[in-house]
Amino acid sequence: MYSLPEGYEDIRSRAREFALREFTEEVSRRYDESEEYPDEIRRKVFSAGFLDMADPWKVLIAMEEFCRVDPGLGLSAIASMFGSEILMLFGSDEQKERYLAPVLRGEKISGFAVTEPSAGSDVAGIKSTMERTPDGDYVLNGEKMFITNGTVADHYYLLARTSPPESPDKRHHGLSLAIIERRWPGVSPTKLRGKLGMRSTDTAEIKFENVRVPKENLVGEEGKGFYYVMTFFNISRIYVAAQAVGVAQGMLDLYLDYVLSSPSPPSEGAQFVLAEGATKVEAARLMTYRAASLIFQFNPDPALTSMAKYYAAEVANELAQKIMGIVGEDGLRGRLEKLYRDAKITEIWEGTSEIEKLVIYRQLSKRRSS
Amino acid sequence: MLKDEEKLLRRVVTEFCESNVEKERLRIERDGIPDSLIRAAAESGFLGALAPPELGGSGLDLRSYSVLLQVMSKYSTSLAYYVFLQNSLFIAPLLKFAREDVGRSVIPEIASGGSKGTLVQDIFRRSKNSLSYEGKLNGMADMVPLPDADHHLALVRSRDGDALVLSNPGNVLERYRIIGLRGIEFGKVSYEGRADVITERGSSAAEELMGEVAIPLSAMALGVVERAVDMAAQYSKEREAFGSKLSEFQPIAFYIADVQAQFRVLEEYLYSDSPDPLTVKVLSLDLARKASRMSIQVHGGYGYFEDIGVERLYRDAAVLSSIAGNYLDDMTKLSRGLLGDFAAKI
Ligand SMILES: Cc1cc2nc3c(=O)[nH]c(=O)nc-3n(C[C@H](O)[C@H](O)[C@H](O)COP(=O)(O)OP(=O)(O)OC[C@H]3O[C@@H](n4cnc5c(N)ncnc54)[C@H](O)[C@@H]3O)c2cc1C
Questions:
Q1: Is the complex ipTM higher than 0.90?
Q2: Measured between CA atoms, how close is B56 to chain A, in angstroms?
Q3: What is the CATH number that goes with domain B213-339?
Q4: In what helix (H) or strand (E) does residue B176 lie, and over which residues does it extend?
Q5: What predicted TM-score, i.e. pTM, was given to this entire model?
Q6: Rounded to a whole number, what is the distance in Å from the CA of B293 to chain A's nearest CA?
Q7: Are A328 and A304 in contact (CB under 8 A)?
């Protein structure tokens, strides 16, 4: 796949225009400083038709183009549906009706709660528990950490342990996924402030104390939660790859502005930074689209997806450091410094770069042995 | 590598930072450096580090001064920069270029913390150069550190070339913080008033100045590296994933060992008998960027939040890389030292 499916270049232009019009420097700065959730932006993105889960290419392109201008605002808007694929794939009809539909209509916001204070990469190491009550419902206890949309989501898709593992090497068994409403008794989210970047995204620590979870809110089968989460990550990671491509492209845009606005013609050293950067961004973009095209045809290749995410994040962060070092003082305020701060998260969330590499190895070695 | 008195100084500064800076580090970043800390730094002789004792200073040589900045930068690069600004960018140029009767008299005030100095580097700005001097200092300057400082040294255009002048404070039009060194306020200042010429060799003074800040700047960068590595090493020994300490995973251990190995060689070189300033600068700034990125990565999600204290290293590394020339300028000079004046022109 060497180009986007037909019609998407138009969508790209619309997304670009939207981002340039709505994510002005003033708006960007305001949310970055206040760390408030940009609900007005989310609504506008929804009304403009970019949050259309039935058309994943559109969402992916919007993610890329929005992050090119302001990753925090772009992500906040698009991730307002965070985790929805879980219900699309594994949810019951009632769950889709009750929880998914309002999210897709832009009326509600969702979150995806896996990470805990003592376990992030090691998903199976989580400690939250959901214990069965005699009437078949569950009682949830535990703590989640770094949850995007934590204080603004209406509900979360949450992973907790429903039975102890049979043995230490089977820790990924006995985990289950459930839908938890934020306003239920016993749910207490606390906003976490002071992030390096992505500061307009809402991040929270959430405590769950004896939260009553009706059995209807269990997603899919009990004990299969780990598998559902990994399936979700194999999809959602591609959006992180698109974020990183967008951030990297945004930095190249600013770098080119800087070079061209110089009174003297750029040295070859300055030219090569652009040439090398643009080459890598293009490679990252192609990897992202290739992995995306397989996912969107329901034939995902997890190795490719992880490669795209790892490589795009690497390119974004490498470029961030290189360009900041060249632009110098002019880059210490404004859009460039913001992209530099925002870029770093792409190496961390939804699987750190190290975890992506483990996935790549595992997949490739599995293929060899089969 | 370090002489006994330098080791002693390192201990003294470490103790100073442990008792005065560490507990304030988040407050410094959020609200600026508290006055009490500036007073304490003055009392310890840090604000007049480079001034001779007869002008109220500590008379440190370049190596000891570097030790001071490196240690301080580990705890707060904002505070280290404050000391650097008073010394390398204010006291040092006055000592070097000012006549006895003009300029030097303010040094004791700066050393005692009674007043603050700053340097306006307008001469290096690409197109925005708008300060001029014709008997009076005129125009506007952006990115002035401590815009409310009592004394402003300015590198400006004058009728007969470039000059270094000492001016009274200007009118502060805007105050802001930049990506890093959040404890330091920057601003836009308009000047229209009396200023004394310190030297008329402005451009060459500026060049010399930039040459001389390379080592102190590198020392601050190494402070960032040291903190980044220490924190990553510590965290990797405590945090567990998949039932093992992070330090047990090869990639994590290698990241830390790699940065630490480069740090040791660079530190050794910086404190050797005759380090090449530009070489140290290019390599230590590069390592500061790499080390701070690595340390955030080792800390995972926690690294992304300010209370842990590694994300500020990442931001500070970006500023250190930009405040005294940029990478291309440095590499050009480095190439010319090696290959001759025509090198790296194109
Ligand atoms: C702003 C933000 C938003 C987030 N949003 C969400 C969200 O909405 N929902 C959610 O569930 N989580 C969220 N997260 C959490 C994120 O997914 C985790 O931070 C991430 O998975 C890493 O986990 P950790 O922070 O616990 O780091 P750790 O797992 O402790 O990892 C620390 C370091 O060790 C490395 N490491 C770990 N294991 C190995 C290994 N076997 N080999 C080599 N290296 C290893 C990691 O790569 C990393 O460099 C968010 C995080 C942030 C910062």
A1: yes
A2: 33
A3: 1.20.140.10
A4: strand B171-176
A5: 0.97
A6: 8
A7: no
